[in-house]
């Protein structure tokens, strides 16, 4: 599968939206691809960054950053590899290939494996023509931001 990097506009918007939350955060980047979002989160002050992708090419590109300065790269397919993540994350970014069919299975895996901290936030990038549910399991959408055909839907856990 070809790497499809998050556009600079969307990446900058996400980092700007989370600018205060990133300092000291535990950050998870699912379907990291080029790793641009994971690296931007680390640069913005995230304490721990975990970047996950199924692509060997993506993992090789990120290997120079891996496992040092609290930056870890995990090769695995979603949603299966979620069970191996034993950390609660303050911020999770999920940007799968739009036609992958991964959206709801990965959201379910995040809930099932309790990966999102109680006060954490999940941002899901998707195409404007493929809306995501307002609520799914114990995740509730709190806001959306649109950038052309790209939408960021933000979710938090329902208490």
How would you describe this structure in keywords?
single chain; 159 residues; alpha/beta; Rossmann fold; 8-stranded mixed beta sheet; 5 helices; globular
What does this structure look like?
The protein has 159 residues and is an alpha/beta fold. It has one domain: Rossmann fold. The chain is 25% helix and 33% strand. The protein is built from five helices and eight strands. The longest helix is centred in the N-terminal third of the chain and has 10 residues, at 8-17. The protein is globular and about 40 Å long.
For the biggest β-sheet, the strand order reads: 3-2-1-4-5-8-7-6
CATH superfamily: Vaccinia Virus protein VP39
Helix and strand sequence: HHEHEHEEHEEEE
| SS element count, helices | 5
List segments where confidence is low: pLDDT < 50 over at least 5 consecutive residues.
Answer: none
By CATH, the architecture is named 3-Layer(aba) Sandwich
What's the CATH class label? Alpha Beta
**Which percent bin holds the helix content?**
10-25%
Class computed from helices, strands and strand pairing? alpha/beta
The CATH topology is given as Rossmann fold
**Between the first and last Cα atoms, what is the distance in angstroms?**
38 Å
The overall pLDDT average reads: 92
As a percent range, the share of strand residues is: 25-35%
The total of beta strands comes to 8
Overall form: globular
Q: Determine Rg (CA atoms, Å).
A: 14 Å
- How can the largest sheet be summarized? 8 strands, mixed
What is the total number of structural domains? 1
């Amino acid at each position: 599968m070809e790497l499809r990097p998050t556009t600079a506009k969307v990446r900058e918007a996400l980092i700007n939206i989370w600018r205060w939350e990133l300092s000291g955060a535990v950050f998870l980047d699912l379907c990291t691809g080029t790793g641009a979002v994971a690296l931007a989160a680390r640069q913005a002050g995230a304490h721990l960054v975990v970047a996950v992708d199924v692509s060997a090419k993506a993992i090789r590109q990120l290997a120079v950053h891996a496992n040092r300065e609290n930056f870890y790269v995990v090769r695995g397919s979603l949603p299966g590899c979620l069970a191996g993540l034993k950390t609660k994350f303050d911020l999770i970014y999920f940007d799968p290939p739009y036609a992958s069919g991964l959206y709801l299975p990965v959201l379910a895996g995040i809930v099932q494996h309790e990966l999102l901290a109680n006060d954490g936030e999940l941002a899901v990038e998707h195409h404007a023509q493929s809306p995501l549910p307002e609520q799914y399991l114990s995740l509730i959408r709190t806001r959306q931001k649109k950038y052309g055909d790209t939408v960021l839907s933000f979710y938090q856990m329902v208490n």
